[in-house]
Amino acid sequence: MAVVFEKPKALTDAVLHYCPGCTHGIIHRLVAEAIDELGIQGKTVGIAPVGCSVMAYDYFDIDMVQAAHGRAPAVATGVKRANPENIVFTYQGDGDLAAIGTAETVHSAARGENITIIFVNNAIYGMTGGQMAPTTLPGQVTQTSPYGRDTASVGFPLKVCELLSNVDGATYLERVAVNNVKNVKAAKKAIKKAFEYQVEGKGFSLIEVVSTCPTNWGMTPQNALNWLEENMIPYYPLGVYKDKYAQEG
Amino acid sequence: MSEKVLMKGNEALAEAAIMAGCRHYLGYPITPQTEIAAYMAKRMPKIGGTFLQAESEVSAINMVIGVASAGKRAMTSSSSPGISLKGEGLSYLAGCDLPAFVVNVQRGGPGLGGIQPSQSDYFQAVKGTSHGDYHMLVLAPASVQEMVSMTFKGFDLADKYRMTVMLLADGTMGQMMEPVSLDMGEVTEYEKPWAVTGTKGERAHNIVNSLFLKPEELEVKNFERYEKYRYIEENEVMYEEYMMDDADICIVAFGIAARISKNAIDMARAKGIKVGMLRPITLWPFPKKEMRAIADRVQSFISVELNMGQMIEDIKLATECTKPVYLCNRTGGMIMTPEEVLAKIEEASKGGNN
Amino acid sequence: MTKNMLIAGFGGQGILFCGKFLAYEGLLEDKSVSWLPSYGPEMRGGTANCSVIISDIPVGSPIVSNPDILMVMNMPSLDKYEDATVSGGQIFVDSALIDRKVNRTDVEAYYIPATKLANDEGLSGLANMIMIGYVIKKSGIIPFENIDRALQKVVPASKQHLLDSNRKALELGYNFSE
Q: Which domain does A98 fall in, by range?
């Protein structure tokens, strides 16, 4: 009987701990599929963040390092510089990448490190129970913005792809979402391209994946996907923000 | 033996690191250790190594974590305020059982402090650089030659025990020039089957990790790590004795303070005062047993240190407070003269109040 | 025998370099030596000094607070270190830059207009080495015969054309007579 669907080889058999409706599972799968399709499982090293995906090291069946909060790009830099033949990626959330790890993110891009960053933006701190993130939308209610994010007091969200598009060292930046089949397919394409670029030695790429957190948003998974569509995407428009090799691609 | 050359401590240790097989230096500029980075920036590209000036001390130590995770010898260096920033990474290095070599060319503190020589990071190095139950092996060179030999040995100890070795120097050790031989012998290579180099489809995936959410697992990890520490305490203590055979007074000092104390001891001996010195070369593990034994045959100890009196606590613990321990100290970047140490020796020899 | 020497002046006068030259020659003579500079912001145009110790026995502290030989190339340095010099010690003064005499009567004071000599002889920037030549003559801290080998060690490979002028400066100082 022909196999029409199976678990990617780059994922272990461990049962994911993520909440029902959480999109981390989809994104893990997309990363694993890209690794499988490029045949790089044996030489890929992943860096797990601090946040909900802290235990990604148990889910990817590749060599993994668990980094301190925000430091994944620095750790990835070390791994890649030590063994440039390895394919190195980080998997980071919004607090990790765009708050405590902003410097590491910007400077790994500025150096043009030949690494791939998977940036999961769900506009909230999930693991600690729903606090305001650097990407929390204006007016959005969280545990630490109980009256809605007040931009006059706490400022505005960081738009990471827009920010990095001004960094000369960055090669490829794309924002995708995983709220429907069409977007998931586009996300897969972007993630795979980012890994391909690294294999080809083209330099720094970051794929921002706009995603949901039904638990801390206080919504059903379906409502969360709808909310993403109606609120997140207008603020964080999808698309390619930079691609140095766009002509060839 | 190779010809001796005149080198600055900072540059000599950088060359020793290269001779020890280090090809990855990740750092950030800060006085008084910047010569290390400058030397590495010049040398590394010529030998196929990596010199990277990170955006912060925090990032530099995390790059070290990356290189070490990948199984290569990695090093960073800084001075006191920068080491505080590296604290986070030092704890993760311990939690992940990764080898690393870290240099602290100390300056006066707290805060931004000053840039003159100091030993006020003693507590930080031997007690608590960062959070959690862990130790670093701490080496305290007292000459440019030891800056070299301790660096070479430091890389070996780091790999051997899979832990951070900190070279605790000070501004004078880093800035001074002395004749030095760079003849270091062979580098011992250690197998690193735990390193993340890609599975190549030939083994289960390696995970470098310090997260253990189950307390019973984390406790076992810590117990195991402390077993290793106990072994190191039994086997890796290094110290030098100077004129201790007939000494009534024992000076305890490391680094530049030991150099100054040697002058003072010679001056005191000329006056007929029987004083000697135990110079710890490893600050952790501290030469506790040796000090306890000495306590049975001397009248008193003098702790000579460039801080407000930090090592003196370890001397009192090691000697179980059986003998008076005097303190001769300067701080903030000031350095005591041999005469000041001599005055303290004379006070101790008269049995004055400590 | 142990000689503790302190060299002091302004940053840019080659204070550290000439100290390094002495230390290197000491090393080549198989002596124990140390060289310790002042460091920090004062290097940038402010005062600079270095401690040089050349000894028959292992060097203890590398810090010279009471020099046997003091060499000064600006007034603040003479003001600062004159009293610290040991009784019976030697003080060398660049009299082109310092217009007062040494007050101490228990030390030997030597005056040489090194900066003027340097300018007159087309050795601009080498007053430091002229001073050192004179120091060697009057103190015997190192033998003069072997200056070439130490010069080769301290003059960078890219600046070997400066060997001759450095030697000339040393000779000028060595042969100076008041």
A: 24-243
Which of B69, B206, B218 to mutate against chain A (most A CBs within 10 Å)? Answer: B69
Say if residues A205 and A172 touch (Cβ distance below 8 Å). yes
**Are B33 and B118 within one domain?**
yes
**At residue C64, what is the residue type?**
V
Cα B225 to its chain centre, rounded Å, is 20
pLDDT tens profile C35-45: 999 876 544 55
Backbone phi, psi, residue A86, to 5°: -75, 150
Tell me: do B107 and B125 sit in the same domain: yes
User: What is the structure's pLDDT at B353?
Assistant: 61
Q: For residue B159, count other CB atoms closer than 10 A to its CB.
A: 24
Query: Is residue A206's pLDDT more than 80?
Result: yes
- Contact C62/B263, CB-based, under 8 Å? no
CA–centroid distance for B142 within its chain: 11
Contact A102/B at CB under 8 A: no
Q: Which of B172, B263, B266 sits opposite C36 (nearest CB)?
A: B172
Here the ipTM equals: 0.94
For A65, nearest residue in chain B (alpha carbons)? B208
Which residue is closest to A69 within chain B, CA to CA? B88
Chain A partners (3+ C-beta pairs within 8 A): B
Q: Whole-prediction pTM value?
A: 0.95
Question: A touches C (3+ CB pairs < 8 Å)?
Answer: no
**In this complex, which chains have at least 3 CB pairs below 8 Å with chain B?**
A, C
Q: Tokens 């007292």 label which residue? A: B142
pLDDT in tens, B287-313: 999 999 999 999 999 999 999 999 999
Provide the domain limits for residue B218. 5-188+210-235
The pLDDT of residue A50: 96
Q: What is the mean pLDDT of residues A49-57?
A: 96
Residue A249 — pLDDT band, cuts 50, 70, 90?
A: very low
What mean pLDDT do residues B13-29 have? Answer: 97
- In sequence order, the 6+-apart residues with CB closer than 8 A to the CB of B250 are B244, B275, B276, B277, B278, B291, B294, B298, B300, B301, B302
Of C27, C36, C65, the CB nearest to B175: C36
Cα distances (angstroms) measured from residue C28 to each of A50, A61, A117, C141, C148? 57, 60, 56, 13, 11
Three-state DSSP at A109 gives helix
Q: Which of A42, A82, A91, A38 is nearest to A197 (CA)?
A: A38
Predicted pLDDT of residue C41: 53
- Assign C161 a pLDDT band (cuts: 50, 70, 90): confident
Give the pLDDT score at A210: 98
Integer Cα distance of B157 and B137 in angstroms: 8
**Shortest CA gap B347–chain A (Å):** 51
Residues B43 and B148 in one domain: yes
Question: Residues near B275 by Cβ (< 8 Å), separated by ≥ 6?
Answer: B243, B247, B248, B249, B250, B251, B265, B268, B269, B345, B348, B349
User: What span, in angstroms and rounded, lies between the C-alpha atoms of B159 and B71?
Assistant: 10
Number of domains chain A contains: 1
**For B341, nearest residue in chain C (alpha carbons):** C61
pLDDT digits (tens, 9 = 90+) for B26-64: 999 998 999 999 999 999 999 999 999 999 999 999 999
Residue type, A39: G
Mutate to test the interface with B, among C20, C34, C38, C55 (most CBs of B within 10 A): C34
pLDDT cut 90: percent of chain A above it: 97
How many domains are there within chain B?
Answer: 2
CATH number reported for the structural domain that contains residue A92 in this entry: 3.40.50.970
Strand, coil or helix: C65: coil
pLDDT-based confidence at A248, cuts 50/70/90?
low
